[in-house]
Structure formats: structure tokens, C-alpha cells
From TrEMBL:
It holds the Pfam family LIP. GO terms for biological process: lipid catabolic process. It comes from Nocardia terpenica. GO terms for molecular function: triacylglycerol lipase activity. Residues 1-26 form the signal peptide. This is Triacylglycerol lipase. The keyword Signal applies.
Length: 441
């Protein structure tokens, strides 16, 4: 990924020097340049973790709530089979009427093929749906954490779900909305195809609960950034893992597609605070914190991180996105690697390749809408996504893809949000998806 910062700064410095020389007749040489900044420019003190910050909220931490405990017969259960349910209260801004909110703990399969449990929270508005079964929008939030209370089954009850305004728009239209803890109870599925399994089993669980009346409902998928990862991986897993589900479409933006390129970007560093890579460094720390749980034999911190890096990784564990970002930003992983070690190590590289999108055997079998910002500082364009888009386009996926020239990761999402919400709502109503399309840079 190229950066305009260094050329612009160089031109500006040269221009200022020339003007100063002409004005004051300076003949002395310019001062020696300042020494380069060290790669670690995070000057924040050690921050409390979200479990400490949220402990006074009137909702129990899922890590200690017995409702989340797996049953002894888990291995013999089917994917999407319900373990237990409960009715809960939620806080949804912009919906001035009571919602039916049901939480379902269900059996699923993690990225390593092991039986696991996770939860989905299904919200149903008191708006009649006439003419067909009420459709389900599977909404994937950008959870981006490694603690159980980062998950929406906690944050929706506690009133701190960070994408609540987006949910309200879908609920106001009368859709049932399923919000699954698709990264697992403690983040082990983050940026892996395990996310796709959990999303699809969340839809299965919602359809399996007779109290919700959704047994005959079709579904669609929606998410951005970390939620775009869960959405894209569910779309790719659908054909092999849950072909019986009728998925009408997938809208996914800011998608982490090529994990190898994302890793290379996020371990790089430029000097100083005004650079593209610095804010993104936390995403790699978060990925390593979670991958070291799902692939401990490959991502053993002692094998590739310095003692300081191991301490930093330990510090990132157990955090949600807010303090993870503040803890890991401007701390490139490359500054904490043992001599001779890199994320291009064959074993690490193989896992990153396996978990990348766009492989021929995984192409989505539903209409897809994708969008990506060309100035995305977290998931750089084109490296993190264009190989996935190429694979989809050349593989005949029913794709609509657009880039947006908006700087910053979240702003790029907001620029496309109205169109994306309109498109996925049309899919849920059974309307045609429109022609295949690829526009932008």
C-alpha cells in the first residue's frame, strides 16, 4: 500500500527551506534531521480491561454465568440444536415499542472441528409481517474482542451494543434480527472460518426455537469490518456446512479477505504517529491473542515473540475493541518478534492462507454485495481484498462490488450504509438482486 504522506512532507520541507533562504538570505546548511522515532510510539499507561470496567453493570459476565455452560451431551448434539433458551430485556435506541428478545445457547462446531456452544440473541419487533414467514436478518457486529463480555449477548442486555442504531433500522422494517456471538465465547474463532459456522448455526437455532415462529423463514447476512468477516465466512461456508438454509443474500463491507497481506500490513511500521500502519497494529495483536487459543501449537507466543511481546500479548487478551485498540496501536508486532522470526514462518503462513477468503472450494452461492474504502487504514486496499474480489468475479459469484474514496475505516462504511441497508432489505423481501457489477478503482 502506498502512502502520500512521505512525498507530501518531502515537498513541503523543500519548499519551506527554499522560501526561508530567499527571504533571509540564509546560506547555512539545513540542520541535521532528527533521529528516527522508535517503532513503539504508544505512550498510554496500562489500561483497565473491560471485565474490570463492566463489573458494576447489572448483567452477569458470560464467563461466570452458568447459563453459558456446555451440557455433558454436547458431542452427540446436532449443529444448531438448542441447549437452552431465556427471554431477556434489551436496550434498542429508536424503537419506541417493546421487542421480543430471546437468547438461545446452541451447539456448533469451531474452526478445528470440535463441538462448542455459543449464543444468539433474536429480536422480533411487534410489527406484523404479512404474506410470508417473517424473514431473519443475521446481523454480524464487529465484535473484535477476546473476552466473553465483548459479545452481543452481553452488550445488548447491558445497553452498550455499539451498533445499536443499525439494528434499529432493520427492526423498524419488521425483520427478525439474529445477533450471534460468532467469534465464540472468548474470541477463539476471530478471523477464521469458525465464524461462518457459528453464524449459520445461529440461524439454525433461531429457526429451531418454536417460540419464535421462524421455522419456515428465509435469512440474509449483514456485517461490516469484523462483522463483514463473519458475514463473508458464513457466505463461503453455506454451501458445504448448511446448504439447507435459504440464504437470500449477503451484504459485507470492509472485509478482511487476504489474511497473509493483512498480517504483513499490520506488522509494518512507519516512523512517527502520522502514518497509516500505526492505528492498525492493534488488529494483529488481537488476531494473535485469539489465534494462539485456536491454534496454540502454531501461534505459541514463546516461539516467535520476545519476552516484552509476550507480556503485551497477555495484556491484549481479555479486552474488547476499545481498550485493545488503545493498547495495541502504534506497537507493530515486528518490533516484538524474536530475531529471525516472522509471520511468514511456514506454519503460521499456512494457517493464514487456510483462513483467507476466495478459495475455489468456498465461493458463495448467493447474491453478494461488497464494498471497501480505498483509504482504509485497518484493512488496506487493494492488498487485503482485491484477490478475494478477483476470485469471486472470475468464479462467477453473483457479485456487486464497489470501492469508496472515503478516508478512514468507519467513515467508509457510513458512506455506503444507506445503499447496503436498502439492498439487503430488498433481498429479504424476495426482490431481484440486480446485475453483476464491479465499479471503482
Amino acid at each position: 500500500m502506498f502512502s502520500l504522506r512521505k512525498p507530501v512532507v518531502a515537498v513541503a520541507v523543500s519548499t519551506v527551506a527554499l522560501l526561508m533562504s530567499s527571504v533571509v538570505g540564509a546560506t547555512t546548511a539545513l540542520a541535521d534531521p532528527l533521529p528516527p522515532m522508535p517503532p513503539d510510539q504508544n505512550q498510554l499507561p496500562d489500561l483497565p480491561k473491560e471485565p474490570d470496567l463492566y463489573r458494576h453493570l447489572p448483567v452477569p459476565d458470560p464467563a461466570t454465568d452458568p447459563w453459558y455452560a456446555p451440557p455433558p451431551e454436547l458431542d452427540s448434539m446436532a449443529n444448531g440444536q438448542i441447549v437452552r433458551t431465556r427471554d431477556v430485556g434489551t436496550y434498542v435506541t429508536g424503537i419506541p415499542m417493546p421487542l421480543t428478545t430471546r437468547q438461545i445457547l446452541f451447539r456448533t462446531t469451531d474452526v478445528r472441528g470440535r463441538a462448542a456452544v455459543t449464543a444468539t440473541t433474536v429480536l422480533i419487533p411487534p410489527v406484523p409481517w404479512i404474506g410470508s414467514p417473517r424473514p431473519i436478518l443475521s446481523y454480524q457486529e464487529a465484535i473484535d474482542g477476546s473476552a466473553a463480555l465483548c459479545n452481543p449477548s452481553f452488550t445488548l442486555r447491558a445497553g452498550i451494543f455499539k451498533e445499536i442504531t443499525l439494528l434499529a433500522g432493520f427492526l423498524a422494517q419488521g425483520f427478525a434480527v439474529a445477533v450471534t456471538d460468532f467469534d465464540g465465547l472468548d474470541g477463539t474463532e476471530f478471523l477464521t472460518f469458525g465464524e461462518g459456522n457459528l453464524v449459520l448455526d445461529g440461524i439454525r437455532a433461531a429457526k429451531n426455537d418454536p417460540a419464535l415462529g421462524l421455522a419456515d423463514s428465509a435469512a440474509a447476512l449483514y456485517g461490516y469490518s469484523g462483522g463483514g468477516s463473519g458475514t463473508a465466512r458464513a457466505a463461503e461456508r453455506h454451501r458445504a456446512y448448511a446448504p439447507e438454509l435459504r440464504i437470500l443474500g449477503a451484504a459485507e463491507g470492509g472485509v478482511p479477505g487476504d489474511m497473509v497481506q493483512i498480517a504483513r500490513h499490520n506488522i509494518s511500521h512507519d516512523e512517527g504517529l502520522a502514518n497509516f500502519s500505526g492505528p492498525a497494529n492493534f488488529t494483529m495483536w488481537l488476531a494473535l491473542a485469539n489465534l494462539s487459543r485456536s491454534y496454540p501449537e502454531v501461534f505459541d507466543p514463546a516461539g516467535y515473540l520476545t519476552p516484552e511481546g509476550q507480556e503485551l500479548l497477555k495484556n491484549v487478551r481479555g479486552r474488547c475493541v476499545w481498550t485493545s485498540a488503545l493498547t495495541g496501536a502504534y506497537r507493530p508486532v515486528s518490533a516484538y518478534l524474536r530475531p529471525g522470526k516472522s509471520l511468514d514462518d511456514p506454519a503460521i503462513h499456512n494457517v493464514l492462507v487456510e483462513q483467507s477468503l476466495g478459495q475455489p472450494q468456498n465461493l458463495p452461492d448467493m447474491p453478494v454485495l461488497m464494498w471497501h474504502g480505498i483509504w482504509d487504514e485497518l484493512l488496506p486496499f487493494p492488498d487485503s481484498i482485491e484477490s478475494t474480489v478477483d476470485a469471486y468475479w472470475n468464479g462467477g459469484v453473483d457479485l456487486r462490488y464497489a470501492t469508496t474514496p472515503i478516508p478512514e475505516h468507519v467513515a467508509a462504511d457510513l458512506s455506503v450504509l444507506p445503499a447496503a441497508e436498502t439492498w439487503i432489505s430488498a433481498m429479504l423481501r424476495g426482490l431481484p438482486p440486480g446485475p453483476r457489477l464491479r465499479i471503482g478503482i
